[in-house]
Amino acid sequence: MGANKPVKLTEAQVEERLAKRPLWSEAGGMIQRTFQFKGFLEAMRFVNAVAELAEARQHHPDILVRWNKVTLSLSTHDCGGISQKDFDLAGEVDTMQ
Measuring CA to CA, how many Å separate 38 from each of 45, 47, 55, 63, 68? Predict the structure, then answer.
């Protein structure tokens, strides 16, 4: 069981991965990105699609909705910080828009 536990990335590893995902940034021990849509309904469709993906991956982001903007914040509670699991989900979400 412990063998599958995600490993917390070092600050250097986080920076290296963020360089490949320039729309994401680090904030408060998480990676986050804000997506913008034409309106509220489009934003909510995106949130629902992210929810389906997150549930399938068993990795659930914090989601903040402000009318046509959706901010996703990712961290891995199991390791107490940012892991590769966060960047994997970020990459999948990036292909959704």
Answer: 11, 14, 26, 18, 6
Q: Is residue 67 part of a domain?
A: yes
**Residue from 16, 21, 23, 1 nearest 78 by CA:** 1
CB within 8 Å of 51: residues ≥ 6 apart: 63
Q: pTM of whole model > 0.90?
A: yes
Instruction: Report the domain count for the chain.
Output: 1
Residue 64 pairs with which residues in a beta bridge? 71
Where are any strands of DSSP class E within 44-90?
62-66, 69-74
Helix (H, G, I), strand (E, B) or coil at 53: helix
Mean pLDDT by 10 residues, the chain (97 residues): 80 98 96 98 98 96 98 95 97 92
Domain CATH number, residue 45: 3.30.1360.20
C-beta of residue 4 within 8 angstroms of C-beta of residue 77? no
Question: For residue 14, what pLDDT is reported?
Answer: 98
